[in-house]
Specification:
GO terms for molecular function: flavin adenine dinucleotide binding; oxidoreductase activity, acting on CH-OH group of donors. InterPro entries: FAD/NAD-bd_sf, GMC_OxRdtase, GMC_OxRdtase_N, GMC_OxRtase_C. This is GMC family oxidoreductase N-terminal domain-containing protein. Pfam families: GMC_oxred_C, GMC_oxred_N. Keywords: FAD, Flavoprotein. This protein is of the alpha+beta class. It is 24% helix and 22% strand. The chain is built from 14 helices and 26 strands. Strands 1, 2, 11, 12, 13, 14, 25 and 26 form an 8-stranded mixed beta sheet that branches. Strands 7, 17, 18, 19, 20, 23 and 24 form a 7-stranded antiparallel beta sheet that branches. A hairpin with a 2-residue loop joins strand 12 and strand 13. It is globular, with a radius of gyration of 23 Å.
Length: 575
């Protein structure tokens, strides 16, 4: 702290922040500070794939947010996990590698007027940091007859025999490892076959711009371990003398100065956990907010950048009246249909006894495979909720298990869960501070199922699930609908039941959206610089995280956030 001045200060060592720290510190002449309010990623459950069960809801790794009561959820609130650790949400998420659809990025280009957001220009940024699996690192796993500890487990053979990607679509040798999952389940194979019988084509690659189809998800793992952005991007850069990383450093507010050229962000006021010390740090070039769709708008509002009425309410001087800060919140709401099955194994049975749990632990210790290597969802499908849609508008996350709610015990009967989400919700929510204290969580109101279109998609998607489960391929498992219940048939009944059983899939975006200058809700320019609310920019301030997305991508949002950070880093260094 002899010289608390840096060239770049990055707030948040999550998905975007770790990549930015790596890229910006490549220039040895630039001093880079990366601050993280959470802890180091040295908790063992961060690295074991099934450890998300022990990280979500754990104050060591999760901010423990809750949503506001939602009318669309019949007054319910939801747990809203956000990573509180190096790697951010990439340390506690579902590890699914998903880019979305080409049309998502073409729409961004149209919304922002920036051609760089077109799919053809985003694909190279996805490939830039990708390390896509090859045959030699994803050979077939031994089948259960060859393993002394797999006799009571499903046959654990990897699906497919070789890498199906090509240089046109995938990159090799980058930091972001993408591999096949290291297990399969008979009942999930049957669901995939049933989906094909229902008209959904099989696919071996969800990431070529059109993700329609059914197949096993690819995951951000390496040899059976979670691969988070702290491992991928931060650790290789830690030996650079120009990169400083602080954990337990809470950003209290931005330091803003007004000069002849307008408003400029010159640094941050921080509170350090150790010793309760207050520290001021300054940035010669830029402060970059990568605190996520919840943290970044919260910090902007606390600093006097946001809707004037909200800031006045909490006695915060208005430096930039930007009504879009905290607005435009979008998320994927998954409707969790549960089906009892017969004649097949699910995790409900395997994890119900100490013997079964022991076998699962041995399977992972022996081969880094089996249920402990599982992503939360193994099988995926993208299709249309009705013929009215020109593109796949719903996504399935199918799991060989069931429970009443996340964090609750598994059911005592064998079952699978077919969760389905609306990829392009029209409902919009908000993130708003509740006080001027940085320690107080903001009010998170996703406003799920608030529009007629979203309610219709919810009802129709439950019917698609029923159509898949009724196909001949599932017949040998005798599926019986447990939730929401086959007796419910009307749109009104299905929408109401969707509100009872749905939960977030943890994809909040849009709360600091980028857009054109004439968009009243556009917080950022197309190159992610913060506007000043008066037709200009706040110099030296940028937001690079999922909050910048004007519309949510058609799939899981972690890898699109990395792509955005790759692009932003290039812009920041003048590329």
């Amino acid at each position: 702290m002899s010289d608390p001045t840096f060239d770049f200060i990055i707030v948040g060592a999550g998905t975007a922040g770790c990549l930015l720290a790596n890229r910006l510190s490549r220039d040895k002449t630039k001093r880079v500070l990366l601050i993280e309010a959470g802890h180091k990623d040295n908790y063992h459950w961060v690295h074991i794939p099934v450890g998300y069960l022990y990280c979500i809801g754990n104050p060591r790794t999760d901010w423990l947010y809750q949503t506001e009561p939602a009318a669309g959820l019949n007054g319910r609130t939801l747990r809203y996990p956000r990573g509180k650790v190096l790697g951010g949400c990439s340390s506690i998420n579902g590890m699914i590698y998903m880019r979305g659809q080409a049309r998502d990025y073409d729409q961004w280009a149209q919304i922002t007027g920036e051609d760089e957001w077109r799919w053809e220009h985003c694909l190279p940024d996805f490939k830039q940091h990708q390390d896509y699996y090859k045959l030699d690192s994803c050979s077939r796993l031994p089948d259960k007859r060859q393993s002394p500890i797999s006799s009571n487990l499903p046959a654990l053979t990897s699906h497919g025999g070789q890498a199906h990607g090509s240089a046109a679509w995938h990159g090799h040798g980058g930091e972001w490892r993408v591999e096949k999952q290291r297990l399969r389940w008979d009942v999930l194979d049957a669901f995939a076959a049933a989906a094909q019988e229902a008209g959904i084509p099989a696919t071996g690659d969800f990431n070529r711009g059109n993700n329609e189809g059914v197949g096993y998800f690819e995951v951000n793992q390496k040899a059976g371990w979670r691969w988070n952005t702290a491992k991928a991007f931060l650790r290789p850069a830690l030996n650079r003398p120009n990169l400083t990383v602080w954990t337990g450093a809470h950003a209290q507010r931005l330091l803003l100065e007004r000069g002849d050229a307008g408003l400029r962000c010159v640094g941050l006021a921080l509170a350090l956990v150790r010793g309760g010390q207050a520290v001021t740090v300054r940035a010669a070039q830029e402060v970059v907010l990568s605190a996520g769709s919840i943290g970044s708008p919260q910090l902007l509002q606390l600093s006097g950048i946001g809707p004037a009425a909200l800031l006045h309410q909490h006695g915060i001087p208005v430096l930039a009246d930007l009504p879009g800060v905290g607005a435009n919140l979008q998320d994927h709401l998954q409707i969790r249909s549960v089906y009892k099955i017969a004649g097949g194994k699910t995790l409900n049975q395997l994890a119900s006894t100490l013997w079964g749990k022991g076998l699962i632990g041995l399977e992972y210790a022996w081969r880094r495979s089996g249920p402990m290597s599982m992503a939360p969802s193994q099988l995926g499908a993208f299709t249309r909720s009705s013929p009215a849609f020109e593109w796949p508008n719903i996504e399935y996350h199918v799991q060989p298990l069931s429970l009443d709610a996340f964090g609750e015990p598994l059911h005592a009967f064998p079952a699978i869960t077919a969760s389905v989400c609306n990829l392009n919700p029209t409902s919009r929510g908000s993130v708003q501070i509740k006080s001027r204290r940085f320690e107080d969580a903001p009010a998170i109101a996703p406003n799920y199922l608030a529009t007629d279109e979203d309610r219709q998609v919810a009802a129709d998607s439950l019917r698609v699930t029923r159509r898949i489960m009724a196909q001949p391929a599932m017949a040998r498992f005798k599926p019986e609908e447990f939730k929401p219940g086959a007796q419910y048939q009307s749109d009104e009944e299905l929408t109401r039941l969707a509100g009872d059983i749905a939960s977030t899939i943890f994809h909040p975006v849009g709360t600091t959206k980028m857009g054109r200058g004439d968009d009243p809700l556009a917080v950022l320019t197309p190159r992610l610089q913060v506007r000043d609310g008066a037709g200009g920019l706040i110099a030296g301030l940028r937001v690079v995280d999922a909050g910048a997305m004007p519309t949510i991508t058609s799939g899981n949002t972690n890898s699109p956030t990395l792509m955005m950070a790759e692009k932003a880093a290039r812009w920041m260094v003048g590329g």
